[in-house]
Amino acid sequence: MSEEKKTPGLEENFQKLEGIIGHLENENISLEEAFAAYSQGMALLKECNDQIDRVEKQVLKLSESGQLEEFQHGDGML
Predict the structure, then answer these.
(1) Nearest to residue 54, comparing CAs of 3, 5, 19, 13?
(2) Which of 5, 6, 45, 51 has the least C-beta neighbours within 10 A?
(3) How many CA atoms lie within 13 A of 11 on its CB side?
(4) CB–CB of 55/35 below 8 Å?
(5) Chain-wide mean pLDDT for the chain?
(6) Cα 47 to the center of its chain, rounded Å
(7) Is residue 40 a contact partner of residue 20, using CB atoms and an 8 Å limit?
(8) 26-54 per-position pLDDT tens digit
């Protein structure tokens, strides 16, 4: 049985970002630590944006005929 490395979900990445922000708010953080935390936070933020983009592309809507269709921006739906 092979073990797959699970990709963190959006909620987990948001929790990690909150931890990084808390670390950056610490008054005793060194410049090097702040830069490393900032870099890690920016990478996590990019991953969150990528995850949101993937979800948006998968959103489906139910047409009047009962068929699932890919959601298109500007379809007049909220």
Answers:
(1) 13
(2) 5
(3) 0
(4) no
(5) 81
(6) 5
(7) yes
(8) 989 999 999 999 999 999 999 999 998 88
DSSP 33: H
Q: Please, how many CA atoms are within 13 Å of residue 3, restricted to the half-sphere of its CB? A: 1
**Residue whose pair of structure tokens reads 């959601």 in the numeric block:** 71
Q: Three-class SS of residue 69?
A: strand
pTM here is 0.64
The DSSP 8-state label assigned to residue 75 in this structure reads S
Average pLDDT, integer, range 54-60: 74
User: Six-digit token pair at 24?
Assistant: 């950056």
